[in-house]
Amino acid sequence: MNKVELTELISAGADIPNAAAKLVLESIVYRIVEAVSANEVVQIGGLGSFLQVNRSARMGRNPSTGLSVQIPAIKSVGFRASAAFKRQVNHS
To answer: Labelling 34: which of 43, 51, 57, 79 has CA 20 to 30 A away?
Structure first.
């Protein structure tokens, strides 16, 4: 499913125009990105939690040359599915 298809489903499910559904979806995505960027955890009941994950610096290996290379520490995004979401996926 892509963004357009999701927008259409939101529009139909909430009985609102596609343009309004698109604004709602874009607003939700923007707010989640903004909050996680500020190191806040975003919890959505029945879906899960979005959170910032810190990955430590480490040594890696270039597969084509075999040389060791330093991989810098980065911030990444994690998602933890809720128990209800996991149950639904496992029972469908």
So the answer is: 57
Token representation of residue 77: 């995004």
Q: Which tens digits make up the pLDDT trace of 47-91? A: 999 999 999 999 999 999 999 999 999 999 999 999 999 999 999
CB 51 within 8 A of CB 77: yes
Cα separation, 63 vs 71, in Å, equals 14
Residue 34 phi, psi dihedral angles, 5° rounding = -60, -45
H or E segment and range at residue 75: strand 74-81
Kindly report the pTM of this predicted structure.
0.82
Model pLDDT for residues 6-19, shown as the tens digit of each residue: 999 999 999 999 99
